[in-house]
C-alpha cells in the first residue's frame, strides 16, 4: 500500500522536486502549502509528469498557530494515519516580519510552526506505526545552523534585524528539535534532519541579481536534494534510523549547540511553553 506523506512547502523549490520524487516512488503526496494557486499548479505539474499519481492539496500557513490547527483538522478528517511528515517549508525575509502570534517570522514560521505541527500530527503517526510498524519525520535544517545562536531575547523580534542571523537561529532550532525528538518519540517513529546542499531554488529570490548570479554557479539542482529527502522518507535502508543529520554536499559540520543535550532540552521545554503544548517525556 502506498505511504501517505505530508510535505510542507511542497509547491516550490526543494519541496516541489521532492513531491515529484515521492510521487514517482508511488507515495500519496499531500502538499501542505500557504499559496493555494501555486499548490494547485504544482499538483497539475506532478500529475502531468507522473500520470495517476495521488496528490492532495491542503492549506497551511506555518506563521499562525490557528492555521496549523486548521490544517491538522482538515488532514485528520481525510486520513486515519500518516506515514511521513517532511518539515520542508522555510523563508528568509530580508525585512523583519512577525508571525500571527507576534514572533519574529523566521523563529515563528521556520521553527515554532513545525514544532507545533509535528506534535499535533503525532497521534496519526502512531496509528501508522500500528498498521505498518513505522513512521518517519524529516526536517530541512541547513549548514547555516552553524552560524546560529538560540537567543530568547530575539524570539519576538530583533532590535537590529539581520536576516541571516534570524535564519541561522531557525535552522539551528530545526536541528535541535530533531535531536530532542529522537529521545522522546514513541517507538517506531523516527526523526532525521538534513542539509540539502546549496540548492538553486526561489529561496534566493530576494537577493540582489548580481549576488544571485554568482551564487548560482555553486548551487546544485533541487532534484539532487529531493533524492536524499525521498530516501530518508521512504527507503528501506533508513528504516529505524533516528537522530541523524545528513547532507547532500560535504563537509558536514555540526555546531556544538546542536549537539548539546542540555541546550536541546532547554529549547524544547521553552518551545512547548510558548506553544502551550505538553512536552513529550524523554526516554532515559
Ligand atoms: N535552497 C537552499 O540552498 C537551502 C539550503 C539549506 C536549507 N534549505 C531549506 O530547504 C527548505 C526549502 O527551501 P527552498 O530552497 O525550496 O525554498 P523555496 O523554493 O523558497 O520554498 C520554500 C517553501 O516554503 C513555503 N513557506 C514559506 N513560509 C511559509 C509559511 N509561513 N507557511 C507555509 N509555507 C511556507 C513557501 O511557500 P510560498 O510559496 O507560499 O512562499 C515555499 O513553498 C527550507 O526550509 C530552507 O531553509 C534550503
How would you explain this protein's 3D organization?
Strand 1 (4-8), helix 1 and strand 2 (28-33) form a beta-alpha-beta unit. By secondary structure, this protein is α/β, with parallel strands linked by helices. The chain is 45% helix and 13% strand. The protein has one domain: 3-Layer(aba) Sandwich (Rossmann fold), CATH 3.40.50. Strands 3-2-1-4-5-6-7 form a seven-stranded parallel sheet, sandwiched between helices. NADP nicotinamide-adenine-dinucleotide phosphate (NAP) binds next to helix 1.
Question: What is the secondary structure topology, with strand pairs?
Answer:
Layout lengths: L3 E5 L4 H12 L3 E6 L2 H14 L4 E6 L5 H14 L5 E4 L17 H28 L2 E6 L22 H20 L6 E7 L13 H8 L5 H13 L9 E4 L8 H4 L1 H15 L9
Parallel strand pairs: 1-2, 1-4, 2-3, 4-5, 5-6, 6-7
Helix pairs in contact: 1-7, 3-4, 4-5, 5-9
The protein binds NADP nicotinamide-adenine-dinucleotide phosphate.
NADP nicotinamide-adenine-dinucleotide phosphate binds next to helix 1.
- Bound ligands, each once: NADP nicotinamide-adenine-dinucleotide phosphate
Order of the strands making up the biggest sheet: 3-2-1-4-5-6-7
CATH architecture: 3-Layer(aba) Sandwich
Number of domains: 1
Strands, count = 7
CATH superfamily, by name, is NAD(P)-binding Rossmann-like Domain
> Proportion of β residues?
5-15%
Count, helices: 9
Rg (C-alpha, Å): 18 Å
